[in-house]
Amino acid sequence: MVDQNCAYCVEGALVDKFGIKICELPESKVYLFREQSHKGRCIVASKYHVGDMNELTAEQRAAFFEDVARVSRAIQALYSPDKVNYGAYGDTGHHLHMHLCPKYSSDEFEWGGVFLMNPDRKYLTDEEYSKMVEELKAEIAKQ
């Protein structure tokens, strides 16, 4: 099912407000989060318009979490965070997705706590976004 009001289903301008598409994996679409206070932060969104992981079959759920792990490995290989935090919310956007938020102990802003949905601290140039997207796309393909 496709929800015409869902950013992850229709993409385009709705998702462009907060993310840049990197690639598609077997069960998901991967986006670079525009706000880059945590270098390498990405979103992995299910290809299915479901609000909860339990709405997927066991096979779909396992494959979705393998996609999440694959993106996490790419983030770790490229940016060497001290920890990757994972967030699955969806109170208002009822489409299964996970935020992969690299955390760095050198950042006193949020180290040791829950990451903010949008810290609104750091945005990049178009060239910097393009470079990160290409780096991540290549590294995800290797994982």
User: Could you name the CATH homologous superfamily?
Assistant: HIT-like
Helix content: 25-40%
Q: How much beta, percentage-wise?
A: 15-25%
SSE-based structural type: alpha+beta
The ordered string of helix (H) and strand (E) elements is HHEEEHEEH
Poorly predicted parts: none
Tell how many strands the DSSP assignment holds.
5
Give, in spatial order, the strands making up the sheet with the most strands: 1-2-3-5-4
Helical run tally? 4
- Here the CATH topology equals HIT family, subunit A
Quick rundown:
With 143 residues, the chain is an alpha+beta fold. It has helices spanning 7-10, 13-16, 58-79, 126-142; strands at 19-25, 28-33, 42-46, 83-87, 97-103. The model has no long low-confidence stretch (mean pLDDT 94).
Describe the structure.
33% of the residues lie in helices and 21% in strands. It is of the alpha+beta class. The chain has one domain (7-142): HIT family, subunit A, CATH 3.30.428. It has a five-stranded antiparallel β-sheet with strand order 1-2-3-5-4, covered by helices on one side.
List the helices and strands and how they pair.
Layout: H1 7-10, H2 13-16, E1 19-25, E2 28-33, E3 42-46, H3 58-79, E4 83-87, E5 97-103, H4 126-142
Antiparallel strand pairs: 1-2, 2-3, 3-5, 4-5
Question: What labels describe this entry?
Answer:
4 helices; about 140 residues; alpha+beta; globular; HIT family, subunit A
